[in-house]
Amino acid sequence: ASVGKEAERDASSRAGGLIRRFPWRAASDGGHGATPRTALLRSAPRQRPEGKGKGLEYYLSQFLCLASLVLLLIFLGILVVKMVGSGWLDRREESFNLLPVDCDKSTDDFCQAKQKDVTMAVLHELYNYLSVQAGNFECGNPENLKSKCIWVSEAKDHVLNVTGSSSQKFEAALHWILNSNKDLGIRLKGRDLSEPVSSVEEVFCLESAHPQMGLGCRFRRAMVTAIMNLFLFFWSLITLWGILIFLRYRWRKMEEEEQAMYEMVKKIIAVVQDHYKEWERNLERYPYVGIFHVRDSLIPPQSRKKMKRVWERAVDFLASNESRIQTESHRVAGEDMLVWRWTQPSYLSDSEH
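The line above is the sequence of LEMD2 protein; the predicted structure tokens follow.
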């Protein structure tokens, strides 16, 4: 018998522990039942609706993530183009062999072949010289060049020394460049670098359109270009993130201010209604109460500057949305002031409660 009683006490203590651990156990069935699902759903706290601007905040976040990914792809693309593109342009000299032949009023096949060989040699050497000089100028300028546009006399002396051609052949090559509609990679500049030249006599300097640069220089220039573009995109993303953070902060402040305004409206209604009830019991002299008196009773002096906007919004809300409180102007203690009067009789207010 004693063992049976001890087992019963043990079972009851376990049941009580389960009830304490699981408060939703119904008391009516001795701790062995469960509260219905509808009651649990009714007692669960309701989630607050999302604030204003949450949809815009979501789309802005998605846009910024996508922009970050696009930024990375653009950076890699610029790096590849700068590394590979320049090397591809350096091979443009091979197209010289496809240029048409002009043999100075001679139809002899041998003359045409000789003219082609000489012109190709001059153009090829001129192209190489200008591209190397332009590449040196772009990659640290070890020769202290003032510009990558080389004086025509200097380019002429170099080409004639290397190829052994005459000045006439060099001028013929310049004529070919002027009259050709193909991109030969050589630009003819006059004294005014912004104005195009129309004759060989106007040529002041020669410039390569495709500088010949080494792998290290090409990689360094590609990195600089990519970093500069990345810097611009980076600041654009920072600006967008700053706008998003500011909007989130503004939305939160607006929600807090609106909630504080509704709380202030409830307090004002309670004060005005209590004042009216006390007037009905002859505890107050006037049935109305001054607006500033209500403000001073609800907001401490140290918080009035901070709560000024909340108070003004609450006053405007009562004036346009609360029919039980009427705003009037009365002379109190020799001064005109705005007051609030409760217009609903007490018996109606009590019946509502």
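Note on the example: The CA atoms of residues 9 and 15 lie 10 Å apart. The beta strands are 150-151, 186-189, 205-208, 288-290, 325-332, 335-342.
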